[in-house]
Amino acid sequence: MSAFPRHLCLLCAVLLCIITNTFAQNNNDKNITITSQKERFQFETGDKDNPVRIRQNSVTTYTCNQFRTTIPFIEFYDDKSTIDEVRVYLNGSRNKGIKPSYQDYSVDGIFYSDAKVCTLELPLEKKGAESTVELDKTITDPRYFSSIYFPDNYDIDNHEIQIVVPRWMKVEIREMNFGNYNIKKTQEYNSKRDEDIYTYTAEEIPGKVYEKNAPGPSYIYPHLLILSKYADLKSGRINYFNKTSDLYAWYRSLVKEINDDESIIKAKALEITKGLNSDTAKINTIYHWVQDNIRYIAFEDGIAGFKPEKAQLVLQHKYGDCKGMANLTRLLLKTLGFDARLCWIGTDHIAYDYSIPSLAVDNHMICALNYKGKRYFLDATETYIGFDQYAQRIQGRQVMIEDGENFILDKVPTRNWNQNSYTEKRNLRIEGAALKGTVHQQWDGESKEFLLTQVHGTKKEKLQDALLAYLTESNAKYKISDLKTSDISNWGKLLDIQYNLQHQESVTDFGDDLYTEMDFRKELSGYSIDTSKRKHDMLFMYKHHVISETSLDVPTGYKVNALPDNLKIDREGYTFEITYKINNGKISYFKELTIRNTRLPKTQFAQWNNDIKALDNAYLQQITLTKK
Amino acid sequence: MKIRSLHLAILLLLQLPLYAQKARDIRAYKERATQVRNEVWEWDIPAFLYGVKAKIDTTSSAIVVARHVDVKASSSRKMKNLGNSIRVERGKDLFYSNTFREMVKINDKAALEEYSQFSFRKFKNLNSYFHRGLATTIMGVRIIKPNGSIREVNVDEEVVNEQENGREKSKLAIPDLQVGDLIDYFVRVEEQKDVNSPVDDQMFVLGDDKPILQYSVHAEISDKYFVRYRTSNGAPDFIVKKDDDGAVFDLLIRNIPNLPVGLWMSPYRQIPMIRMSIAFGTRTEEGQVAGEIRKNPNAMEAKNVLLKEAQLTDKYFATLPSLAELKFQVKNLLDKYETNMHDEIPEDSLSFYAYYAFRYLAFYSVNASDKIVVGKSRNYSTPNNRRFLGYLYQVMQNLNIPVEYVFVVSRYGPGQNDFLTGSDYEIMLRTKTAKPVYITADGVFSNCSDLSSEYEGQKAPAIELKKSKRQYNEVGAFKDIEIGVSKPEQNAKTEQIAIAFDDNMQLLKMKRKTSIKGYLRSDEQKRLLRFEDYYEAERLALGIEKSFMEEFADSKRNRSLAEEYTSAFEKARTEQKDDFMDEIQEQFDIKPKDLIEYKIEKMGLRHTDPDLVYHTTFTLDGLVKKAGNNYILNAGKLIGEQLQIKPEQRNRKVDVYQPFARTFEYQIELTIPKGYTLEGVDKLNKSVDNECASFTVTSTVADGKLQLKVRKVYKHNFEPVAKWESLLQVLDAAVDFGNQKLLLKKA
User: Fold this and answer.
1) Of A479, A412, A470, A475, whose CA–CA distance to A443 is shortest?
2) Nearest alpha-carbon partner for A164 in A38, A39, A42
3) Which of A590, B37, B73, B418 is the most exposed place for a label (fewest CB within 10 A)?
4) How far apart are CA B282 and CA B195, in angstroms?
5) Domain ranges, residue B471
6) Residues of chain A contacting B648 with CB distance shorter than 8 Å
7) Neighbour-count burial of B737, counting CB atoms closer than 10 A to its CB (0-12 exposed, 13-18 middle, 19+ buried)
8) Can you give the residue ranges of the Transglutaminase-like domain (chain A) (predicted)?
9) Res A85 pLDDT > 50
10) Percent of chain A with pLDDT strictly greater than 90
11) Given pLDDT bands bounded at 50, 70 and 90, which one contains residue A22?
């Protein structure tokens, strides 16, 4: 408090400033519309370092429909682009008082990137007011100019995209996801300047909607893919990405510059595999070692965003991004004599494959291993997945594998839901108001990876508590004892947990009747989709497969009076099955849930909701045991 | 990924542009960094050497093998003369440094994650309108492998720098760090600034979420500084030695176990700690003498500081130009009230009216130039407490309402007798009327006489300042007031729920009336109320003739603004439904299937009508299970989820700081569907009532209806740990009730 007077002097003295928070508004009420957006992209010759560049001029006019507000204007740029000028107009008059700020753009999960952001607060002074932002930007390398999207954060009345391509520049423009959108294209030739002008005009483009578990933007929004193939300049031809082989050649040129020190890596590989004789043991051990010892830290910094870090440096740092981890995995295996290769791959977030020669096609690197006529893929950024098991995000994806001067296109195998099986088997009996017995649970594939990620993210001393909380679903009446787990540091095998259970107060006694239920976890319960709000298809994290079996001894002196109904739902993308049986004095409960297809299309939401309702109904049923 | 952040403790109100880092500065930085690293690694502290050789326990995720804090307060010139490579700039003779070094054994991946990334600012500008200064942060990191080999991280080479809000931030990913390693790192902050700049208060907290094998402190403070420090909660004292330059403080503690449970704690009052305040020079008027070391300053000293504070605050706000306008506006509102309502404000109520008029001006009134903010976010506006009360004090005096300053320490702040500096205290106002009214500035919905629950039971010095030139304010003029403690029935949530079964028997239709009073009220007010409603209610209560909407509509210039507000109100109204849905879901842990009706009956805006009352009608499924022809109702879930104490929290060794005493009551009337009989009612009744809390359930069936009354009471805002078992008994009873079921048997 001694510093109080000093602080006071700095405070604003008007009473209104008493309110200290600032308020952000969003536009989900359609308060703002972009009435007009005009973007022009002009290819032009540059200098020696950047022989071809693209000048962008964008003029975006926002209109306030309901009530005055302030909105953020945001434009990204990076090492391969510059923002040259930003001009703001309020109701047609230039306003020089509103100045943009420029800073690095931080994203959760990326330690360092060259992404920068230019932002300004744009006022819309009253209902009906128009504010315009005009932006001049330069992209210094056509390789990095790969797509133009039609939608923005707000609904757009009219969006015009003009691409001006001199005839010395060979560019292919691909129209993506135009579907039902009202987009018109015109093309004209300016003979004076010897350039083609492609003009796309889109009317009434709805604003982007950000939703969790939704497909990536390249699947859902209309956009143009700009494929810069080559430039015939006075100084000669510059090849960009004319064909996929050019893309590979460019990647390979970067790989050639890595300068791996094989002797260091070989020494490490020998150390890791010391005492192992079989090839498979060595391969498994190398993969496991990289998963376990190299921390994933993402770097997306200019050319370093495409060029793997030296393997010896990744080894020394004990951290790396996907490229560095893939390269280290490759070299560890290679130095042991295996045929291991670098691979480029676009995860399932990206809609394209390598038929398109563009940097927009991929976003990830992994390692391929050719062994005894079979090809395996190793992605060490998936820390807790086993060998020859694949994360959903790379399954079935086309992959570009290095092969000297050439490349091989292949696909990562697709695994069905059985890779990720989670099973629970319970043998129970009734004692008083409790269900008692033994439980055996097993996890594999991505269900195992998911659980192990939580486990290893928990502090040791809290692990037992956290694991119990997970297994008991924090239900104090679900008492677990004699817990035994398999080795949690060996994710090459099933994760196996066994324990004794006493589920207190789970049997209710009314007169001559006992009531209880056979399912504790009730997976997918309440997982219906709000169709009034959800705009995009729903993506599940991975293909799920749940098997739950419970066997309950019918207590002596009791008979089964009523069993719940069985359930069987079999759809293209998923199945739910529940059956009850009575056998030799036991009630057997069997449940199998599968999510076969991770993408649930919007058209199936109504069916899904009905099926979830049926599943919920099944979960809301109990068995009745009556005294004989 | 969470980055371990090492921000400086000082938060400046004013940030000046980025400190220009010239090549010369960078060179000087590197030179100094090398010198500092050499110095710190050479420290003769055996614990750091021991850590390298010893076998450290691996049962905890991480163990702090050694932690040492080194503090220096001296002069820049002197540091330079001692051979330090620091540049002495004119006007920046105060030198202060703080070095935090720790060696941590990494035993699992969670700990590895915690220590794998750091961020810091190499340079931080401390310039302000009054002060000049620069803070420099230097980091050093070493990794010690299990075989004892030591590798120093080349921090200057490994960091990446990025711009964040116009300032440079350095980020460091620690290379070659693995489970099983020791990380030995330090962060040195050096500040050079003018002698009038404040020095960070020091806080040595003797506890962490991981065990600490050794914690040591060494502070060298020149005799140009005045030092005040306080040992709290059983913390040991420094060994203090005087030398020619000043004083040396040393502290050494071994084997500090990790901290206890996080539930219902007040760390300031429960964890051993030493707090220290360092100030340059002698300031007689503030009782500050250079070279003096004052341990555990007494209550009289606190009052001296608070008196100065009150005088400065008073003087500052009394002279602000905007005060006159504010006085006028409040007076004007009160005059208009009397005129328009034909009602003279009674003298004993003047303070209430003045407060509500002031609150209206701060949070409710709308100007044409304001941003349109009428949604829920407006409800979360918080005032700057000192400014709000500083002005209000002047306004009240202007209205001849006798008022005094009350200084109070939060229950979550330092202990009652643990005064160190004035910043331990918050300000309140208290009217010196027949029935004194306490005034704090919590927010939009604070009633006159609402207190923060954090102040309950605290002893608080109060003073009414003499303003006459002939009268002097004295420490002796303080009165010691004890803030009252509320009773559980004053902070109560009461629900009346009428429940009927839908035809399909598994859907419940619930008609609910909720009344909330006391400290439980404001959270729901913020979530559920809308500006349009509370603005109108307060406008009418203050007798203001025209609403801002009417004024805008009548004004040629602002006519369109009224339309804009109408649109904004509509949007806020649609969001209100979602907020009611959330409220229901939060209580029952089930999303309502359908929200049929929602209505606010009372907003609880004033102390004369303080309860928040609202009605909801909705349907819920998931509480009724089918068993053959019968149905089982999860009766225990009708009162929502109950607090469940985690297994690791049950064995408690520390006192219990409850937020406040409180009551939850549910009066449920359930219509038994025709054709069914209800069984199991007798099993519902229970009563656990002890000195800490109670949980009672009573039920009756009559006229085809079940009447169920459930009441849960937390009787106090504090329980000594000895009574934890009694509290647990009640909490467990409530959780047990959650499993209670009723059978609806087909007749």
Assistant:
1) A470
2) A42
3) A590
4) 11
5) 312-485
6) 462, 465
7) buried
8) 268-344
9) yes
10) 86
11) very low
Q: Is the ipTM of this complex over 0.90?
A: no
- Does position A11 have pLDDT exceeding 80, yes or no? no
Token pair listed for B536: 């109108």
Task: Tell whether the model's pLDDT for residue A27 goes beyond 50.
Answer: no
Give me the residues of chain B with pLDDT under 50, please.
1-20
State the DSSP H helix or E strand holding residue A264, giving kind and residue range, or none if neither.
Answer: helix A262-272
Question: pTM, whole model, 2 decimals?
Answer: 0.89
Q: Which of B53, B47, B98, B49 is nearest to B212 (CA)?
A: B47
Chain A CB contacts of B13 below 8 Å: 7, 10-11
C-alpha distances (whole Å) from B580 to each of A26, B583, B586, B599 are 20, 5, 10, 9
Give Cα separations from B12 to A86, B7, B426, B443, B552 (angstroms). Answer: 31, 12, 19, 24, 40
CATH at residue B641: 2.60.120.1130
Helices within A295-341 (DSSP H only): 311-317, 322-334
The predicted structure's pLDDT at residue A3? 29
CATH fold label, A418-627: Jelly Rolls (2.60.120)
Residue B387 to residue B389: CA distance in whole angstroms: 5
With respect to residue B158, please indicate whether it lies within any of the assigned structural domains. yes
Question: For A387-410, what is the mean pLDDT?
Answer: 96
Residue B470 is predicted with a pLDDT of 65
Chain A residues closer than 8 Å to B384 by CB: 11, 18, 20
Domain A32-239: which CATH number of 2.60.40.3140, 3.40.50.2300, 3.90.70.10, 3.30.420.10: 2.60.40.3140
A122-178 tens-digit pLDDT: 999 999 999 999 999 999 999 999 999 999 999 999 999 999 999 999 999 999 999
Residue-level pLDDT at A502: 97
Amino acid (one-letter) located at B270: Q
B270 within domain boundaries: no
Tell me the mean pLDDT in the region A198-209.
Answer: 96
* Cβ atoms of residues B169 and B123 within 8 Å: no
- In a domain? residue B132: yes
Distance to chain B for A620, nearest Cα, Å: 5
Which residues belong to CATH 2.60.40.3140 in chain A?
A: 32-239
Q: Tell me: the pLDDT tens digits for A301-354?
A: 777 788 999 999 999 999 999 999 999 999 999 999 999 999 999 999 999 999
Rounded average pLDDT over A521-549: 95
Residue type (1 letter), B283: R
Residue of A33, A318, A615 to mutate when probing chain B, most B C-beta within 10 A: A318
Return contacts of A245-249, CB within 8 angstroms, 24+ apart.
Answer: A245/A406, A245/A407, A246/A357, A247/A354, A247/A357, A247/A358, A247/A359, A247/A361, A247/A400, A248/A400, A248/A402, A248/A406, A248/A407
